[in-house]
Design goal:
The protein is α/β, with parallel strands linked by helices. It is built from 13 helices and 15 strands. Strands 1, 2, 3, 4, 5, 6, 7, 8 and 9 form a nine-stranded mixed beta sheet that branches. A six-stranded mixed beta sheet has the order 14-13-10-11-12-15, with helices on both faces. Helix 5 (183-192) packs parallel to helix 6. The two termini are 34 Å apart. The protein binds adenosine-5'-triphosphate and magnesium ion (MG). Magnesium ion is lined by residues 179, 181, 337, 339.
Length: 382
């Protein structure tokens, strides 16, 4: 008899010929997630199991963050032949609980002498006799004891929901423009959840933005990497570009021009890192640079698709999501972002593309972009 972790995965993505590929990715990511607690991971008959771990809680926390995992249950694995021993173990597992319960049984070994209804009935009666604090409720129980008869018997009471989504790396790679704000980490999470690998680009404007602001963004990238695994963060020096824009371009267009440079540089770095799309945390109408026309102007300078998964979300919905994935607290730390440096008093909300392009002629774009890329620092997180 031993403790294991039973891992359930979403079935939807498992149809068709890609199944072995998806399953291999999923088990590899679970292995990676539990490597430092010594977990052994294996796949058998529609379940993934983790055993030999040194710390169950860490195991649960890590595995519930692996995209593609539906839920996990700490379970006891035991020999299936001695049904009395199974019932005795069931009693031990239910002992801490009071209130209503039911036994749910699943038998994939069809040669097993008891069928599922019999297992439920027998084990339920056995528990009820010995634990007077429990009552049976088959429709709406407070606790469910699961008994699965496979190669062994598996007993579990608790179930922890996981992130779901699709296994990381099964749907290409995209580059997240990561600021220190609330929205961009949520946007990255939402795309990564669909199995898309990430890399990140962050623009900083030292000395107008501090070392602490940079660290905050790297902390956000680390939080994301708990879901996405190891990734590269490109930290791009942006001061010179912002200064030049500030000096040479009409004030009401400075934010938009700055955003266009962010997109141009992100696309170059994305291509270099093998990413096929860009991700931003923009949402329609949230600020002046996120009006319909403004978004059109930023899209205009890149050829890659730009994913904006927060586009139709209210701020309150984005915050709710940030809280759930665990980035909200870090995002809320009060360090400055380069967007808040040189903010114009009256940013254009209905910009004209031709005027922006004209304004940008005052800048030596090629040299500015090249210098920013040459000065880029690459940080690996996760
Ligand atoms: P966030 O909450 O993510 O900062 P925001 O609502 O503050 O977003 P903006 O500051 O206008 O919006 O930025 C819009 C998007 O542009 C961000 O979601 C992010 O994808 C990108 N972005 C903004 N600043 C930076 C930066 N310094 N480095 C990288 N990307 C940035
Ligand atoms: Mg921001």
């Amino acid at each position: 008899m031993r403790d294991i972790l039973l891992v359930r995965y979403g079935e939807v993505f498992l149809k068709g010929q890609n199944r072995p590929f998806f399953m291999k990715k999923l088990t590899d990511h679970i292995k990676q997630a539990v490597r430092d607690v010594g977990g052994r991971v294996w796949l058998s008959e529609g379940r993934i199991y983790v055993s030999d771990f040194s710390d169950l809680e860490t195991c649960i926390r890590r595995v519930t963050k692996v995209f593609g995992v539906h839920s996990v249950s700490p379970a006891v694995e035991m020999e299936k032949d001695d049904f009395e021993a199974i019932c005795a173990q069931a009693v031990e597992m239910m002992r801490p609980f009071s209130g209503s319960f039911k036994v749910l049984a699943r038998r994939s070994d069809k040669r097993y002498p008891l069928d599922s209804p019999a297992i439920m009935r027998e084990a339920g009666g056995y528990i009820l006799e010995r634990l007077p604090q429990l009552t049976v409720d088959v429709n709406n129980p407070e606790h469910t004891l699961m008994i699965e008869i496979r190669d062994h018997a598996y007993l579990s009471v608790e179930r922890f929901p996981a992130v779901e989504g699709m296994p990381m790396g099964t749907n290409g790679k995209a580059c997240l423009l990561l600021s220190g704000g609330i929205d961009s980490p949520v946007a990255g999470f939402m795309i990564a959840k669909r199995g898309v690998e990430l890399c990140c680009v962050h623009y900083h404007s030292f000395p107008y933005t501090s070392e602490r602001a940079r660290e905050k963004v790297l902390d956000l990238a680390r939080l994301l990497s708990e879901y996405c695994g190891r990734m590269r963060v490109f930290v791009v020096p942006f001061t010179e570009i912002q200064m030049q824009i500030h000096q040479k371009c009409p004030e009401n267009y400075t934010t938009l021009i700055m955003r266009r440079y962010m997109m141009r540089i992100a696309q170059i770095l994305a291509e270099r890192d093998g990413a096929q799309a860009l991700i931003t945390g923009e949402s329609i109408g949230q600020v002046a640079s996120q009006t319909m026309e403004a978004l059109g102007c930023t899209d205009d300078v890149v050829s890659m698709p730009v994913f904006r998964p927060c586009i139709g979300m209210d701020k309150s919905e984005i915050i709710e999501r940030a809280v759930r994935i665990g980035t909200f607290e870090t995002s809320s730390l009060p360090y400055e972002d380069c967007c808040t440096v040189f903010t114009p008093k009256h940013p254009a909300t209905h910009p004209r593309k031709a005027l922006i392009a004209k304004a940008e002629e005052a800048l030596d774009s090629e040299a500015l972009i090249q210098a920013a890329i040459d000065g880029t620092e690459v940080v690996e997180v996760g």
